[in-house]
Write a structure and sequence with these properties.
Elements (H helix, E strand, L loop, with lengths): L17 H25 L6 H8 L3 H7 L3 H5 L3 H4 L3 H6 L4 H19 L5 H13 L1 H26 L6 H30 L4 H23 L9
């Protein structure tokens, strides 16, 4: 089963400025807080947008002003916890270094999620996610989005070589495999969080899954010429 990081089906809104912007952000935050309380108490699938509006003391139309769907609310903080894929790729010279930097980016994301001020919300997020088949289905486009993001940066990094169909195929395969490894790490993270394991044990389980997967990628792609920086 593949699951997401603590995170959004759409990017967070731009930082607000001025009185109107601050009011908008307060309303957006109140909706998200009310939604998560309901999701935690009753399960994601049982909660309606109308009930979220009532719990947040706003009109249903106000909810739609800020969020497109329940999934949008649930994944609304995704970009705060996403690994820095573009930065990792652009800073690597070889395939082995690229894999290591991708692994490190995920590890850093785990540390952010498991920080003391994020941990309670992360546990709630993981429990709600694993209990909802519809949320797990809605995650699939997010996984494809991350794979496509990685592929785009890899193609940019390859320079003129990206015009070669064979190189593009190899990069697409690598992006898919690297994305699958990332999801294995987050699967382990969410399972351990939902089970109530201590933060240290959660981190160990998640990083062990990453190490196994990325270790195989290093052996397979560490010396691959098409992964060398142009």
């Amino acid at each position: 089963m593949t699951t997401s990081s603590t995170a959004t089906a759409a990017a967070p809104a731009a930082p607000a400025s001025g009185l109107r912007g601050r009011k908008r952000e307060r309303t957006r935050h109140a909706i998200a807080e009310a939604a998560f309380r309901l999701f935690a108490d009753e399960g994601f699938d049982a909660v309606t947008l109308t009930r979220i509006a009532a719990a947040a003391d706003v009109a249903p139309a106000t909810v739609f002003t800020h969020y497109a769907s329940k999934e949008d609310i649930f994944f609304g903080r995704r970009l705060e916890f996403e690994p820095g894929i573009a930065e990792a790729v652009r800073g690597a010279a070889t395939g082995a270094e690229l894999v290591e930097r991708l692994r490190s980016a995920c590890t850093e994301a785990f540390g952010t999620i498991l920080a003391a001020d994020s941990l309670p919300q992360a546990r709630t997020f993981s429990r709600i996610l694993l209990d909802s088949p519809s949320l797990r289905r809605s995650y699939l486009p997010l996984a494809r989005e991350r794979r496509d993001q990685l592929l785009s940066v890899l193609l940019e990094r390859a320079g003129e070589r990206a015009a070669d169909a064979g190189v593009r195929d190899e990069l697409e395969t690598f992006a898919s495999l690297a994305g699958a490894v990332r999801e294995l790490g987050f699967d382990a993270l969410h399972a351990a969080l939902a089970a109530g394991e201590p933060a240290g044990s959660v981190f160990e389980a998640a990083t062990a899954a990453l190490d196994r997967g990325y270790g195989r990628l290093v052996r397979a792609y560490g010396d691959a010429p098409f992964l060398e920086a142009a």
